[in-house]
Amino acid sequence: MLAIAAVGILLYLLAPTFGWMLDSIFQRSTALYPAPEVEVIGRYVLDESPEAEIPPRFTHYILDLNYQSGWLEDEALLEALRDERPVMITVQTWSSGSRAYDNNPLVDVNAGRYDDIFTRFFRLLPEKGEGIYLRFNPEMEVPVDQYPWQQYPSVYIDAYRRFARLSAQEAPAAVRMWSPAGYPGALEFYPGDDVVDAASVTYRYSGEGQLTAYPRDLPPDTDLYRRLHRLRFLSVPIYVILPPEAKGALPDLNRVIQKLRQAPEGTYGKQPSLDAVTANRKRYREEAFTFGLYDPDGRLLDNESISAEHLFTDFQSIDSGKFDSLFRAVDARGHVAIVSFEPFHAPDEVRDSNVLETMVEGKYDSILERLYTTLGSASGPVYFRYAHEMEIPIHRYPWQSQDPHTYIRSFRYVMNPDRLPANIRRVWGPAGDRGSLEWYPGDDFVDYISIAIYGLPDKNITDPKQQEQFATVFNRKMWRMRFVGKPVFITEFGVKGPEDYQTDWMLGAAKTLRDDYRIVGINYFNMSDTPKAWGDIKPPDWSITRPTLDAFVAALTGERKERQ
């Protein structure tokens, strides 16, 4: 037993550096061992007035489980738990061999191969698990190869739920902890309100050091604030785990709680739970789609299937009157307007890198009022999108890579119902990338969600056949939106390539859209993309031909499956 535990401790300490490949060398067997170097440094509750405290000192253990090696040879450590509570046990499931989907321990959990050792473990917990906190396969959302249970959302969720249900049966007093690192996209792995009693985030999780997509080495207070904020839709207590590899200064818990309390009202504690959103999800589309084009060259606007047009505007085009002319032309054609307001290109041509804040300060009120007047002059509804794709961690737009609180305040300022004309439909428009919901402004300020769906998964791909199919992108991005029960308007989608490829891709899109009644509107981007966004690479041309459009419309409006 001591030898097995020693190997487990060694692997635990080396895993941050060498990751999952260690298990191609060492076979992990079932072992329970203490982890005194792991600390719990804070406990937060994100209600309408967030709270924080330093929790009681936990005794921490790690339980490695491998169904192939069976149960513990020596249960003495488990018997000692009675006198050490509160105890936090990190439960880790392992399989042998190289990393692969079909060799993943999560698959083994879902197949029931771990049920026996799970059950034996739960039955040995003192007093049905009273004072025991169970962390199952943590840091699952971080896209690295440190653990074999990372990067598989649906499989992870099923495995967690199986573990949690067995725990509820055999050790109902135990606290079931969902334990992401707090990395962008954590909520994609959330297993459900009914199986989560508490959550945790891991401060400065070492696996993130391998990644460059998001900023690293944030100030300690900012780092912890962002991790907690990413779990803003949870009502359970959130514990802060300090791993042994975390270096440098620690966050100040008081400053972090003050930051959370300074959030716009309703950012925390006001959103309905995931269970409530799921139970009350509506069939939003009863009749035809609103189908539009962004087609500034007017190539396909005369198609009788087109009922909407997408316009982009900014400070200069509003101030000069150009936008007003374009908008009135759309209305004269009898089309509904989709308007994306990009708050940049000020009339003085000075780039305002703090535009979200200066918007709230009232600097652009005169331009806003002129915009509202134009939008209110329409003969029908106007779908109004502000500061889109805010979650992408780049600096293409000055409203990207900003503090979520700052974005939320600015969005609410622009979309204040007391100022907007009655015909405005407020659209919140992330790209649909990881962590989008960090920037969600709240149900009271959003009528529709929009996402963008383009075939290219990466800018460096030039072969059109390497594009993702519409359904692949759609399902991934819609899953990220599952905490919000709003109708969806896809304000941008497109595919590049030869006409036959575009047509096949569009027919696949039609099938996906036709059978999903959460989608009320769609808008195709019928033009080349902006050159500046693609650097030295030729920007993709999303334009389609009239026959491709006709084929798409025919497939979209054809006979639909009836939903039960």
Automatic annotation (TrEMBL):
<feature type="domain" description="GH26">
    <location>
        <begin position="244"/>
        <end position="547"/>
    </location>
</feature>
<dbReference type="InterPro" id="IPR017853">
    <property type="entry name" value="GH"/>
</dbReference>
<keyword id="KW-0378">Hydrolase</keyword>
<dbReference type="InterPro" id="IPR000805">
    <property type="entry name" value="Glyco_hydro_26"/>
</dbReference>
<dbReference type="Pfam" id="PF02156">
    <property type="entry name" value="Glyco_hydro_26"/>
</dbReference>
<dbReference type="GO" id="GO:0016985">
    <property type="term" value="F:mannan endo-1,4-beta-mannosidase activity"/>
</dbReference>
<feature type="active site" description="Proton donor">
    <location>
        <position position="389"/>
    </location>
</feature>
<comment type="similarity">
    <text>Belongs to the glycosyl hydrolase 26 family.</text>
</comment>
<feature type="active site" description="Nucleophile">
    <location>
        <position position="492"/>
    </location>
</feature>
<protein>
    <recommendedName>
        <fullName>GH26 domain-containing protein</fullName>
    </recommendedName>
</protein>
<dbReference type="GO" id="GO:0006080">
    <property type="term" value="P:substituted mannan metabolic process"/>
</dbReference>
<keyword id="KW-0326">Glycosidase</keyword>
<dbReference type="InterPro" id="IPR022790">
    <property type="entry name" value="GH26_dom"/>
</dbReference>
